[in-house]
Design the sequence.
């Protein structure tokens, strides 16, 4: 168990310190820190840590740790809420417009808030629509990509 704890700690530290975009890059970075890990073990570790691969505004991707306060449980709640109730996601300037099944915007919004994503500076939910305020159109697009990654597809605009 100590080896796993040390490995998870090293993964966290590496992802905070470096811009890692692929499993292979992370395996190499961990090897440089004395941690040898298989692809399957790394995938399980990333899932357990709640790590997601997000698109960057300037192009490309990066693995990121969930923000402080967000837990694996929070991530699973968000995945369930989005999987069950999400209808569409569309950037609109510096806003992200999220449509849900009627009556579920509040619960989806709460799940988004609990993730404490740095791109999301505020949210507002109605009956079936959520507005997520970001600082820029690029951040709104990146956040739309993050949501698409969580639900396993790029969602078409409504």
Sequence:
């Amino acid at each position: 168990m100590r080896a796993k704890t040390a490995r998870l700690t090293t993964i966290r530290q590496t992802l905070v310190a470096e811009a890692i975009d692929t499993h292979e890059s992370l395996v190499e970075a961990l090897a440089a820190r004395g941690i040898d890990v298989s692809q399957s073990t790394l995938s399980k570790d990333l899932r357990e840590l709640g790590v997601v691969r997000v698109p960057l505004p300037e192009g490309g991707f990066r693995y990121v740790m969930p923000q402080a306060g967000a837990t694996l449980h929070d991530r699973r709640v968000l995945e369930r809420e989005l999987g069950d109730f999400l209808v569409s996601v569309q950037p609109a300037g510096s806003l992200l417009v999220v449509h849900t099944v009627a009556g579920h915007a509040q619960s989806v919004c709460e799940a988004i808030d609990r993730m404490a994503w740095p791109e999301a500076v505020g949210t507002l939910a109605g009956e079936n629509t959520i507005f997520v305020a970001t600082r820029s159109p690029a951040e709104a697009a990146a956040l739309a990509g993050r949501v698409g990654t969580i639900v396993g597809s790029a969602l078409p605009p409504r």
Q: What stands out?
A: The beta strands are 52-55, 61-64, 86-92, 95-100, 122-125, 129-133. The mean pLDDT is 86. The first strand starts at residue 52 and ends at 55.
